[in-house]
Specification:
It is built from 15 helices and no strands. By secondary structure, it is mostly helical.
Length: about 375
């Protein structure tokens, strides 16, 4: 039951990032908002989330992960339902501030909660939760657009609020398990006072580079592919990537000890898959194969990185470490969101996006090799 709650929680986290932007036209028409007002509504959440994550870096050690997780869900649920009933700009902004401040309590505790499961179920849950996020990323926009067109933008927000409520109820029903979520011992070879070690800082940097590649492709590819293979074909390609990410997550438990898979191989497989996208002879089939391969290998790699870092961190500091990973993701989101429009309007947008993402993947590979050679010489 707790596992299902974690899956729904990941859906809530990802959907919150995308759903309001996808219904922004209907929102603007319904509430007569100017472009400046819309910009303030869209920027309020990430700014508040950064503040929330920075606060967690200071206070996460004092918070019980289970109680913090429940508190975050309760506040996000209230903020989302408030947004669905908002009738003015101040109400919109206040609801997004509340959600932004509370969402890090959910995101920073997902992986610490996963570490309460025993092997090999832990890797299965981690893979499913992470791949659910990728699948949600690719499906929430068309679904929210459909709901908005048929029933209005508030319906899409109501669905998100109900999803958050369901996740909260499932976690509440697992409250006895939450009482034992923090194991008494850190991972092997880690001293109790180690949290932001140099090795973990390199991991955070590597995660930032991996996120930058994924987000730049996720932002740029929908519009680029729509112009080359058509909207219907582009949607099919992107959705197939979500299914491949789900399969990649399942591989975390399907393969015995997936961590034996060389990170170097996973990096190279991601890069090779991305390069397929810009081949001159790329057809619908090749585009699908390349995107599916990238999504699957990237899912294994990023989940493996997060889970390994969390396991090797002392339990009282796991939420704090994951807040740092969340900040890295948000920074990557800001950079990708700023760079993607310029890349999309270059002379060859597909190659530009692929080169940008490939450079980020190459940087992640170099950082992983350096970290392994410097801090994991026996790996």
């Amino acid at each position: 039951m707790l596992a299902i709650g974690l899956l729904l929680s990941q859906c809530v986290v990802v959907a919150n990032l995308l759903i309001l932007g996808s219904v922004i036209d209907d929102l603007a028409q319904d509430m007569h908002l100017s472009a400046m007002m819309l910009a303030s509504v869209l920027s309020t959440f990430p700014a508040s989330a950064i503040i929330g994550n920075l606060a967690l870096l200071q206070f996460a050690r004092a918070l019980h992960p289970g109680r913090a997780f429940l508190t975050g869900h309760l506040l996000v649920m209230l903020g989302t339902l408030w947004l669905a009933n908002a009738e003015s700009l101040p109400s919109l902004l206040a609801s997004r501030i509340l959600v932004g401040l509370a969402m890090p309590l959910i995101g920073s505790n997902l992986y610490p909660l996963m570490c309460s499961f025993r092997q090999p179920f832990r890797e299965k849950i981690a893979g499913l939760v992470a791949s659910t996020g990728s699948l949600t990323t690719l499906s929430v926009v068309p679904l929210s657009l459909m709901l908005s067109e048929q029933f209005g933008w508030r319906t899409a927000i109501w669905v998100q609020g109900l999803l958050c409520t369901l996740a909260l109820l499932l976690v509440l029903l697992s409250v006895r398990r939450i009482g034992a979520l923090a194991p008494s011992q850190p991972g092997p070879g880690v001293k109790p006072d180690q949290t932001f070690t140099t090795m973990n800082l390199w991991r955070i940097g590597q995660f930032l580079a991996l996120s930058l590649a994924f987000l730049s492709l996720s932002i740029g590819l929908p519009n680029i592919l729509s112009g080359t293979v058509g909207t219907g074909m582009a949607s099919a390609v992107l959705f197939s990537g979500g299914l491949a990410a789900l399969g990649g997550g399942l591989c975390l438990s399907a393969f015995e000890k997936t961590r034996r898979l060389s990170p170097g191989f996973l990096h190279m497989a991601c890069l090779a898959s991305v390069l397929i996208l810009c081949l001159e002879s790329s057809t619908f089939s090749l585009l699908t194969v390349g995107w599916m391969g990238y999504c699957a290998f990237r899912q294994i790699l990023s989940t493996q990185l997060l889970l390994q870092a969390t396991e090797q961190c002392p339990p009282p500091s796991r939420s704090q470490l994951n807040a740092a990973f969340n900040l890295a993701f948000q920074l990557a989101s800001a950079v990708a969101g700023s760079a993607a429009p310029f890349l999309m309007y270059s002379s060859n947008p597909l190659r530009s996006i692929v080169f940008f993402a490939g450079s980020a993947l190459a940087l992640a590979f170099v950082m992983d090799r350096y970290r392994s050679a410097r801090y994991d010489p026996g790996k």
